[in-house]
Amino acid sequence: MLTEFSLIDKFFKKLALKNPETRLGIGDDCALLSIPDGFELAITTDTMVENVHFFADANPKQLGHKLLAVNLSDLAAMGANPLAVTLALTLPKIDENWLREFSDGFLNLAQLYHVDLIGGDTTKGALTLTVQAMGLIPKGKALKRSTAKVGDLIFMTGFLGDAGLGLKIKQGFDSKSQNALARFHAPMPRVEIGLTLRNCANSCIDISDGLASDLGHILKQSHVGATLDFDKLLLSADVKNYIEKTGDDLMPLLAGDDYELCFTVSPEFKNSVPENCTEIGIIESELGLRLKKAKQITTLTTKGYEHFS
Ligand code: ADP
Ligand code: MG
User: Fold this and answer.
1) From 1.10.10.10, 1.10.4160.10, 3.90.650.10, 3.40.50.970, which CATH number describes the 153-300 domain?
2) How far, in Å, is the centroid of ligand 2 from the Cα of 88?
3) What is the model's pTM?
C-alpha cells in the first residue's frame, strides 16, 4: 500500500523544475519562488468538488487536465505568464490507476505551459481537488475587471457555447458532437492570447460561469453597461443545431465552462487584437447587459451559478 509520501514521489514528483524563478520545489515545508525585478506575482486558486464541478464517473486524465486548465485560464485572464502551481488533493482512497491517469492529465498540461508543480497537500476525505496557480506579470500590466471604458469594443476568443452543449449532452441531449464533449471535459486555457492582450485590452475575464455572468462582473466592477450582438457570436454548427432543435438561443450566453477570454479594447487599439478573436459588442454608459438580436434589444440577466443559493 502506498503511503502519502510515496504517492507524492511516484505520481507528482516526476517532472524536473523548469523555471529559474523556482528556487525550491516539492519536499520541504514550503516551496520558494523568486520574483524578478519589475514583475508582480499573480495568484489564483480554484477547487473542484465531486458531484458539484464534475461527475463521479469523470475520466481522471481529463479531470487532471481540467483542474489545471481552469487555474491557468484565470492567469491568462489577468495577462500572467504561468510559473508554478501547488496541488491539494483530498482522496477517499488510494487508487493507483486513478492517480496515474489524473497525474498524467495534470502534468502533461503543466509541461506544455512550463509550469512547475512546487508543492501541495494530500488528505483523506470526499474527492476534492484544489490548485493554486502563480504567474508573472510586468508591474502595472495586469488585465483587470474594473477598467473597461465606455466606447470599448468587446471581444472574445474562440467559439461560444460548445462546453455548454457538452454538458447538455451529458444531461441527455441527443447529439454526437465529440467537439462539444471535448470542450466540456478538456478546455484549453488561452495563455498565449492573454499575454498579447497586455498591450491592447482595457479589461479582461475568462468565461467560466457563462459569458453573460462573467461579462457582468466586468460591467459591475467598471460601473458601465454593454450591448452584445447575437449575430456576431461565433457559434459552431453543433451549437447552431442545438438552438434550432430546442429554441434555447440563450444557452451559449448562459452556459459556463468555455474558458475563452472576454475582453474590452479601445477602438484605436482594434488593429492590435489577435486574429482569432471576434468582436461581439460594445461597452456603454447605460448600466446593465443587453442583447441585440434581429434588431430587437432585450435585457440579459448577469446572474451566474451561486454555490450557496
Ligand atoms: P507538511 O506536513 O509540512 O504540510 P506534507 O507532508 O503535507 O508537508 O507534504 C510534504 C511535501 O510534499 C511538501 O513539500 C508538500 O508541498 C508536498 N506535497 C504534498 N502533497 C502534494 C501533492 N498532492 N502534490 C504535490 N506536492 C505535494
Ligand atoms: Mg501538509
Assistant:
1) 3.90.650.10
2) 9
3) 0.95
